[in-house]
């Protein structure tokens, strides 16, 4: 996470550094990215960079975390607009995410992120769902979900539904970048998989 000196910077200076970092992490994945390129683009001394962040990994995960926070806020808004329909919320959230990736820089940034994903980066974008988080990070989500639409017995099962939908979402995003799929192709695949889960995978006898 950023140091206090970065937090205290004027917004325009923060944005300059963030833009420079996005440009570099769009050019190359984390392990190939260069601090030299970032500070050159930002127009700051290399020493100043280390007053703001520990290293390039610190900056990279800060960017992922910032995007993750925006995703969570957007998800809440969509869930409210969908009147608690969890499945439709995931579908619409995926659609909005794909549209945001039409920005070339953002698409390249996340292409590098998803095709070089590790546990830390995945958990930064979508933190692990646990029972303990039902009373903290997920409390608002849980309160908004229309549980009467779901075939669940308790909140423990809701946690597992969220885990399954998260896994399906991640796999579909990886396919977007690995196969360079269009929005239409991506939405068709994702919607089919979510609807299969919605219907159930086994016929009722």
Automatic annotation (TrEMBL):
InterPro entries per record: Homeodomain-like_sf (IPR009057), HTH-type_Tx_Regulator (IPR050624), HTH_TetR (IPR001647)
Keywords linked to the UniProt accession: DNA-binding
Domain HTH tetR-type: 11-71
Keyword Metal-binding: no
Transmembrane regions: none
Superkingdom of the organism of origin: Bacteria
Database matches in Pfam families: TetR_C_19, TetR_N
GO MF annotations, alphabetized: DNA binding
Keyword Protease: no
DNA-binding region ranges: 34-53
Protein name according to UniProt: TetR family transcriptional regulator
Native source species: Paenisporosarcina quisquiliarum
